[in-house]
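Sequence in, structure out.
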Amino acid sequence: MRSDIRGVLLRSLDQLSECGYSIGIGFNGIEPVFVHSTYSQRWIDRYVDQGYLLVDPTIQFGLSSTGQVTWRELERLFPSSKTFFEDAVNYGLHHGNTLAISADGRVSVLSCSGPEWSSGDLRIARAALHALHALEYEPSNPVTLTEPVREVLRLMCSGCKDQEIADRLGVKLETVRARRRTAQHAFEAKTSAQLISQVIKFGLI
């Protein structure tokens, strides 16, 4: 199922590109957790051989900004990238668009060759990039819960109400509510539904 969803999203990006695209998900510094490229193998080899990852203006833009920009605009924003773009032209990459988003404390960047996107193209690109970010990047969970709190959460996820949880655990009703509040505070969850969603997401029960 996951690979099927990924395939649909990546194919949607094929429709937006002229001579290929590249996507990096969840950058930590210059290292993404997921990379996919449909550029020619000749350009990929050249990119690696020249160490362009360290100077690629599309990545530099993503690490410092969010939003959409054309490659022509990137050349103005990053004057030192002129050689990079001149080299790319030799491999059929004459123009393109870059989109950067930030979510879950990480950056994801999409670059597509081709003419400037229309508003409809941009909506498709943004939707696909956000979906791929959610699919491929799993944020680490910094929250640590005590076993008594976990016991309450397990029973909550099973559909038990506060009084039933108290009876099962042999504790006072207020103790159950206090443990739930502790978990809600840890996850910054405003409701029990939000709390359960976070607990399941991070596999804490």
